[in-house]
From TrEMBL:
The keyword Transcription applies. This is Response regulator transcription factor. It comes from Polyangium jinanense. Pfam families: Response_reg, Trans_reg_C. Residues 123-219 form the OmpR/PhoB-type domain. One of its GO terms (biological process) is regulation of DNA-templated transcription. It comes from the Bacteria. The keyword Transcription applies.
Length: 222
């Protein structure tokens, strides 16, 4: 999942970005409503975590604007306004979910996971040769053996499985599996692929390197 966090509190924004990234999500962060609308229109997100109290344009206005423009990206509204009328206003503006501040991180992550399960219901299980990736349960197996993957490794395998047979450029993997602002000169993709291949064992050849471009998950492996 690729998530946009819209939060002007720098400390909270950093905390959310770090927590979500550690769970394997790709996260972008913006601090105001106008920029949020631009980002939502320009990029494809699986979820927007939107603070109500933003400078100049509040979250409610952001929500209304993106809905009026036909964007159906799921929106989770965060706000200290916990009264029923405010919750109703947020939902009526187009928010899909609502979480009052202060919130428990575990609950927020559970809501994000639930949104991910609903979004991927149609193709939750991806099968590529001996590899099976269950995106709903965040579980991967090869020849029936479970692979112990970190959240980021799982996100990388899931993305390659979704694009099986196609060469996926490094830049695309950085944008989809990591933050768009991630240093393009980093060898983070290569390191993760190396670790995944080690865990795949005899099936390591499932992930093919296309020199100078990126990686491809083979439709059939050894």
């Amino acid at each position: 999942m690729k998530i946009l966090v819209v939060e002007d509190n720098k400390k909270l924004a950093s905390f959310l970005s770090r927590a979500l990234s550690e769970e394997g999500y790709a996260v972008d962060v913006v601090a105001d409503g106008a920029t949020a609308i631009q980002q939502i229109q320009a990029l494809s997100y699986d979820l927007v975590i939107l603070d109500w109290m933003l400078p100049e344009m509040d979250g409610l206005s952001v929500c209304r604007t993106v809905r009026q423009r036909g964007c159906q990206v799921p929106i989770l509204m965060l706000t200290a306004r916990a009264e029923v009328p405010e919750r109703i206003a947020g939902l009526d503006a187009g928010a899909d979910d609502y979480l009052a501040k202060p919130f428990d991180l575990g609950e927020l992550l559970a809501r994000v996971r639930a949104r991910g399960r609903r979004a991927s219901l149609v193709d939750a299980v991806l099968r590529v040769g001996p590899l099976v990736v269950d995106r709903a349960d965040r579980r991967a197996t090869v020849d029936g053996r479970r692979i112990d993957l970190t959240p980021r490794e799982f996100a990388l395998v899931a993305y390659l499985a979704r694009e099986a047979g196609r060469v996926v450029p490094r830049t695309e993997l950085l944008a989809k599996v990591w933050e768009t602002s991630f240093d393009p000169g980093s060898n983070v993709v290569e390191v993760h692929v190396k670790n995944i291949r080690e865990k795949l064992g005899p099936n390591a050849s499932l992930i093919e390197t296309v020199r100078g471009i990126g990686y491809r998950l083979a439709l059939s492996g050894s």
